[in-house]
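Late entry, manganese (II) ion complex.
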Amino acid sequence: MTLIGIVPSGIEGKTLSVNQDYVDAVLRAGGTPVIFPATEDPARLSALLDQVRGLLLTGGGDVDPVRYGEALLPCCGEISAIRDGMEYPLCREALSRRMPILAICRGIQLLSCVLGGTLYQDLDEQFGKTLKHPQYDRPGDPVHEVDVKPDTLLSSIVGAGSLGVNSRHHQGIRDLGEGLRVNALSPDGLIEGVELPASPFVLGVQWHPETLSPRFPAQQKIFHAFVKACEM
Ligand code: MN
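Prediction complete; structure with ligand written out below:
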């Protein structure tokens, strides 16, 4: 069994939750999901990583801008200090182990920030292009396209060129984290996918393939490729 660690997508009050779509997509790919408890203790996080073969960073609230050296602006959304405190050390440790990582939505933003990148705290306020990225009312529909760059890890999975994606984000990567390479852009020029060429499988996507994957086989392929990388 290939165990895949999943960080909870919701930590609120006394409830820890994860969107079932992540779990189902990993199960369909043949992996066995393990939902991690919320802890900021590096020793415990390290012990958790000892038990799994890959790490799935999920979507959710905003990274605290103080993490990338900025003041919190009114346009920033709800931040989750608990998730930041857990995921920064977890992501760092997984990177240093060269463990496969699939980073989705908040996950791609966190991955880039951990590697020294920055975010647009709100795309409408700070990026301001014509494309509407926060489309929360259509969670499972492709609402814009991305251009997948050839000769990338992502293109080896879903093919190069146009790919329809959902879009449930009001933030995005501004300055790219160190060592990352862009593998997908939306038509307005926003970074929608990254990968880390120095590692065997570190892939980030700004959209939510777990919600599209039951209907769109190319999106499920992302989870198959991730679990396959974890099996190696
Ligand atoms: Mn988008």
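The radius of gyration is 16 Å. Will revisit in the morning.
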